[in-house]
Amino acid sequence: MQIEAQHYPGKIERRDVNDWLDRGDKIIQDVEDKVSKVGCPFHICVAKYLDEKTGKMKEIIDEGEKYTKLDAILVVDDLSRKGVAVPTSELQGRDATKAEILGYLMEDKIIRIGVCGLGGIGKTIIIKHVHNELLNRVTKFKKVVSVTATRQFDIIKLQKDIASQLKVSLPDEDETMRAAVLLEIRKLIECWIEEGFIAPMETRHKMNCQGHAILRTLEDNCLLEIVHTMQSRVIDDEDENAVKMHDLLKAMALDITSKSPRFLVKFGMKIRELPNKKQWTEDLKRVSLTRNSIEEILRDLSSPECQMLTTLLLSHNNLSNFPDSFFEQMNELKILDLSKNYELKSLPSSISELKNLTTLLLIGCQQLRKVLALSNCQAITTLDFNQSGIEEIPEGIEMLVNLKYLDLNYTNMRKLPEGMLQKLTCLQILALRISGIQVKGEVLWPLEKLEYFDGVLIDWNELSIFLKVMQSRRERLRDYRLDIGSRGEGTFEYQKHWKRLF
Questions:
Q1: For 289-327, where are the E strands, in sequence order?
Q2: What are phi and psi for residue 8, nearest 5 degrees?
Q3: DSSP state of 273
Q4: Where in this chain does the record put each NB-ARC domain (predicted)?
């Protein structure tokens, strides 16, 4: 039958098909019951009953003609299933390894498991058996999927393979185009905080909540569209959702900001050099040249005269250096984003004189080894050096008494200046766990406004001190990730109300 040809693992009959089959089966069962009770199919009452049921069966058969066509779709995905078993061979002598992996999978603290060994020893077979075992067990996993990634894998293909297994659709766009259309909610709210669009509040958490309230208002008025990303569905975190603005609204916004005070926006336009000097006017307020291919700054732009400029976004370009005088005439500059300029090797000395600078983002600047002194930039509230090549903390950072956000994760730093952290009493977010930096629990005592800590304590003796700090800050310290010792002898996590900050 055609339905049997389509009925393979992971599929079930469509509801209307199933109802049709059930009605036919019921008539057959009713007739069999009637005959068994009377004992003779030729009895007059049975004959009349059979005639009636034959008519109804003919109606059902006529109704089912649409299901007999060659192109008829008779089955759908079984969404109630955790997943589909993968074919594999018998597992020999590896039951203990399988049990060990299954044990790790049940532990909340373990987020990644590696099965290593020479080719041909049965690693893939073990994983297939683990996959199939999870399908049959009652576990915390709602879905179990298996996706293969080669060494030379393509990230977009991998995303689509996972999305396909989860029954989530992804648009047929490349990574750059999707990034140009969507903006992560968490990044947007951080931007609003840095720009001052959200009024200062007692805690970062309250400002984050205010950002979500603004987003809901914009969504309710059809000014922004909330897009549920694959990642947000998998980890159930609304901060991983994204927002999208209609092209007409975007065009209107750009038109409004093209007049004084002026914005200059060339996002994702693949330009290879900065806009010409004529566009860098005195009334320029904000500039976004993100996601382009800018490699160098021409001589006639060695020092743009932009006295009103407050925001300069140059992330995701190919810049390697700047003229030393580039920022000299940008006295009002508050936000500078040079993130993801992977070839950036040095910063101009004029950055050190930006007295109104509040935000400096150098995320992913892997070739950058040093940041010049920041002692004159005492307005700074946010420093993000995540995934940069910076090897030592900038000179004068202990003087940044307004600093609220410091991210040193994935840097090449090994230590901090003695007494530095204790002086940064306004810190709300401190991240330095994925680096060579270890701290003592006592350095956190002065940080009374700390809401998020991601770090490494020197040894177990410091843990009790940290827990005392945590106990005294129960209402404010909402989220932390903690390692003990340089070898990660222990890992602790705590989250309160707030699923994820960044």
A1: 311-313
A2: -110, 170
A3: B
A4: 96-188
Over the Cα atoms of the chain, what is R_g? 31
Residue pair 410/387 in contact (Cβ under 8 Å)? The answer is yes
Phi-psi region of 428 (alpha: psi -120 to 50; beta: other; left: phi over 0): alpha
151-171 average pLDDT score = 70
Question: Taking each helix axis from N to C terminus, what angle separates 123-136 and 95-105, rounded to the nearest 10 degrees?
Answer: 60
421 and 490 share one domain? yes
The token duo for 376 is 């004159």
Domain membership of residue 461 as a residue range: 414-502
How far is it, in rounded angstroms, from Cα 321 to Cα 14? 62
The single residue listed with the structure tokens 């389509």 is 6
Tell me the C-alpha distance between 243 and 86, whole Å: 37
CA separation for the pair 121, 123 (Å, rounded): 6
Task: Tell me the C-alpha distance between 99 and 165, whole Å.
Answer: 25
Residue 407 counted as domain residue: no
Query: Strand, helix or coil at 495?
Result: strand
Q: How many domains does the chain have?
A: 5
Greatest C-alpha distance within the chain: 108
- Summarised one tens digit per residue, pLDDT across range 283-336 is 999 999 999 999 988 888 889 999 999 999 999 999 999 999 999 999 999 999
